Amino acid sequence: MTDTVDKAPAPSVPPEQIKAIPVRHYGRWVAGAVVIAILVLIGIAFSNANINYGIIPDYLTDGTILSGAWHTLYISVLAMVLGLVLGVILAVMRMSSNPVTSAVAYFYVWFFRGTPVLVQLLIWYNIALVFPTLNLGFYKDEMNQVMTPFLAALLGLGLNEAAYMSEIVRAGIQSVDEGQTEASHALGMTQAKTLRRVVLPQAMRVIVPPTGNEFINMLKTSSLAYAVQFNELIKRSTDVSSTSLAVVEMYFVASIWYLALTSVFSVGQYYLERRYARGSTRNLPPTPLQRLKKNLRLFNSFSRPGVTR
């Protein structure tokens, strides 16, 4: 009998590693080069323009400009408060089962959203043509004396904002489940108390984000108040340019102030939205400060000697 020799199994050859070759996107590089070229051309055009950029930092802290920035912030806050309060009332009226109040709220929203803000400001400023005298019984005066540029700007901006805020509030209220209202009524709560204690707090998660956008928009829309001679930022910048003859430079100064104001309130809007989102999600996104601290910790851990990267 022939001796059989046990042969060792042949070693298995590992499969060749697959090398993924990324697809080249030449269009992205072309688009990026075109965008950079356009930005360079715009920068060259502004650098060669007949603009004295050196005086812009000096006028940023000018007393007249600071006064205009303060008036812009002041009228924006007051108009937003007026629009928010009246917007809540209009939203409740719009959702009411009373056909009269619902129709009045609908007509208000239709009219103020359908006409330009500038036209509304001019109408309020010239309202003395319709009502020459203001007679409230306990107070009587000429309308020209009552309707100051400040009051015309406040009414024009605030009443227009109320039309938009009513739709935002109405959408927030309708986002709350009807079972919440039924449960509140079952506990003996009145309609007003249910709205104040149950519905509105839950609706804030939907109301806050667009409200922040509306306020930031209000900061810029307040520039239209120059048409009624209110001393906001554009009006004060125009006054300075009429004496310094630096027209475009003052527009740059006003733009910087608008960017600063909107940036500050954008950060506040972010934290306010984050606060009202606590009940709707388990993991809140990190704040910019938390993200910065995390990046610093990662940088310190990689920069230590002996750490394998």
Automatic annotation (TrEMBL):
Keyword Membrane tagged: yes
Domain ABC transmembrane type-1: start-end pairs: 69-269
Compartment(s): Cell membrane
Keywords: Amino-acid transport, Cell membrane, Membrane, Transmembrane, Transmembrane helix, Transport
GO molecular function (one): transmembrane transporter activity
Listed Pfam families: BPD_transp_1
Cellular component terms (Gene Ontology): ATP-binding cassette (ABC) transporter complex
TM region positions: 29-49, 69-93, 105-127, 250-272
One of the protein's GO biological processes: amino acid transport
CDD domains: TM_PBP2
Lipid bilayer topology: Multi-pass membrane protein
PANTHER family, per database record: L-CYSTINE TRANSPORT SYSTEM PERMEASE PROTEIN TCYL (PTHR30614:SF0), MEMBRANE COMPONENT OF AMINO ACID ABC TRANSPORTER (PTHR30614)
Family statement: Belongs to the binding-protein-dependent transport system permease family.
Name the record gives this protein: ABC transporter permease
Organism field: Streptomyces toyocaensis
